[in-house]
Specification:
With 208 residues, the protein is of the alpha+beta class. Helix content is 32%, strand content 22%. The longest helix has 17 residues. The radius of gyration is 19 Å and the shape is elongated.
């Protein structure tokens, strides 16, 4: 199944390290950062799980709930979490989905046969409160994710939703944003009374 931006994230029920969940109910009115891993007790995955735990406050400040997945059991996950906490000097509290039968990994197209028939690649899904997929990223098994980028994307999506703007390359909060070409100058003046900069008719920047 190929999932695209704008699609409704498939719902599922699963056992996790924090108990059984129904995915849509678990997301509730918040955002979700759903990310997969090849296997427990592997080096890159251990650092990623640890980094997510270290960033718990940063995710919470954005109303984003992390949830991991690998194709192992809850029992294996629980033992692995002890290693994550010890080696990464953190306390992991977010749920990790158990998916030993690959059902959820296949539902979300996380199994790429050229990488492995049984282990998930490093997929990322950012899902909004309406359960819509807003961003997807896929990393190979041997490359760890950039968590600064994941937080930046969450900021960009939430800022875009709030102010009906777009964000330029390498944007971070506090920098100018872009007024979409679909917004007329008259509407832009009403929406942004602080004024905006017209670089080209199709490229207008504003400081929020």
């Amino acid at each position: 199944m190929s999932l695209r931006i704008g699609d409704t994230a498939p719902d599922f029920t699963a056992d996790t390290t924090t108990g059984p969940i129904s995915f849509h109910d678990w997301i509730g009115d918040e955002w979700a950062f759903f990310f997969s891993h090849p296997a427990d007790f592997t080096p890159v995955c251990t650092t990623e799980m640890g980094r997510t735990a270290q960033l718990a406050e940063a995710f919470a400040a954005r109303g984003v709930k992390p949830i991991g997945l690998s194709t192992d059991t809850v029992g294996e996950h629980m033992k692995w979490i002890e290693d994550v906490n010890d080696t990464q000097h953190t306390t992991l509290r977010f749920p990790i989905v158990a998916d030993a039968d690959l059902k959820i990994a296949k539902l979300y197209d996380m199994i790429h046969p050229s990488e492995s028939e049984t282990a998930a690649v490093r997929s990322v899904f950012i899902i909004d409160p309406d359960k819509k997929i807003r961003l997807t990223m896929t990393y190979p098994m041997n490359v760890g994710r950039n968590f600064d980028e994941i937080l930046r994307v969450c900021d960009a999506l939430q800022t875009s939703d709030k102010f009906k703007i777009a964000t330029p390359a390498d944007w971070v909060p506090g920098q100018q944003v872009i007024i979409p070409p679909s917004v007329t100058d008259a509407d832009a003046t009403k929406a942004f009374p602080q004024g905006y900069e017209t670089i080209r008719p199709y490229l207008r920047k504003v400081t929020l």
